[in-house]
């Protein structure tokens, strides 16, 4: 339940790339740090 709730809220934040970049900018990140929309954890964790 917690994971699903977290993912739902994260999707709200990351779905608008311009807004997401605006939120990242004060921390030294920009558009180049935004992962592709089709990137999945399973892909990153493959052995």
Comma- or semicolon-separated keywords:
single chain; 47 residues; mainly alpha; globular
Tell me about this structure.
- The protein has 47 residues and is mainly alpha-helical.
- The chain has one domain (2-44).
- The protein is built from 3 helices and no strands.
- The protein has helices spanning 2-14, 17-24, 41-44.
Could you give a quick summary of the protein structure above?
With 47 residues, this protein is mostly helical. It is built from 3 helices and no strands.
Put simply, the count of helices is: 3
Instruction: List the secondary-structure elements in sequence, H or E.
Output: HHH
Q: On the 0-100 scale, what is the average pLDDT?
A: 89
Distance between the termini: 27 Å
What value does the Rg take, in angstroms? 12 Å
Tertiary shape: globular
Strand percentage lies at under 5%
Helical percentage: 40-55%
As for the number of domains, it is 1
For this structure, the quaternary state is single chain
- Secondary structure class reads mainly alpha
Detail the poorly predicted runs: none
Number of strands: 0
What does the main sheet amount to?
Answer: none
Q: Secondary-structure blueprint of this entry?
A:
Blueprint: H1 2-14, H2 17-24, H3 41-44
């Amino acid at each position: 339940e917690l994971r699903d709730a977290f993912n739902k809220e994260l999707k709200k934040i990351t779905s608008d790339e311009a807004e997401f970049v605006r939120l990242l900018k004060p921390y030294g990140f920009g558009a180049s740090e935004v992962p592709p929309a089709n990137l999945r954890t399973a892909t990153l964790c493959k052995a």
